[in-house]
Specification:
It is a single chain. With 149 residues, the chain is mostly beta strands. The chain has a single domain, classed as Cupredoxins -  blue copper proteins (Immunoglobulin-like, Sandwich), CATH 2.60.40. It is built from 1 helix and 11 strands. Strands 1-2-5-11-10 form a 5-stranded mixed sheet, with no helix packed on it. A 4-stranded mixed sheet has the order 4-3-6-9, with no helix packed on it. A two-stranded antiparallel ribbon has the order 7-8. The protein is globular, with a radius of gyration of 19 Å. The structure holds copper (II) ion. The site of copper (II) ion has 6 residues, from loops.
């Protein structure tokens, strides 16, 4: 493309590409060498993520959010028959959720976390005497970054 033909739309495209690069750099490596999805607030200030539940994993398994800002998680259970859930059990910091998602279903929750730290979430579903889903490895990590000033 010739330079003199670059109108506003082209520059907008260039800016969006640069923005995409910045966004993709949000996928960083954690201390355990696994990918962490680092959420930034959308234009409306909400930090959003889609989390897929399957047997026996969350995708993505590691998510980083900022303390004090609203978080919106949409859970999609892609298992054919197996119900899963999303449990966060930290009453000391008012972070308690037990969200059940039926097979093929989806559920959206909104919450926020005031206290920075690393919190483990897991699925505690269990069929009869079989190991629980958590024992099968169905757990993940929510990292809460301190509020920026
Ligand atoms: Cu499960």
């Amino acid at each position: 493309m010739k330079g003199e033909l670059m109108g506003h739309k082209c520059w907008l495209a260039v800016l969006m590409c640069a923005g995409a690069l910045v966004l993709s750099s949000g996928i960083a490596l954690g201390e355990d060498e696994q990918e962490v999805l680092v959420l930034q607030p959308d234009a409306d200030g909400i930090q959003r993520a889609l989390i897929v539940l399957d047997s026996y994993a969350y995708t993505p398994p590691h998510i980083s959010v900022q303390a004090g800002l609203p978080i919106e998680f949409r859970f999609e259970n892609q298992s054919f028959l197996t119900p899963h859930n999303f449990v966060l059990d930290y009453p000391d910091v008012a972070l308690q959720h037990d969200v059940s998602v039926d097979a093929g279903d989806s559920v959206t929750i909104r919450f926020s976390v005031q206290t920075s730290g690393t919190y483990t979430f897991y699925c505690d579903k269990q069929l009869l005497f079989f190991p629980s889903h958590r024992e099968e490895g169905m757990e993940g990590r929510l990292e809460v970054r301190p509020e920026s000033r």
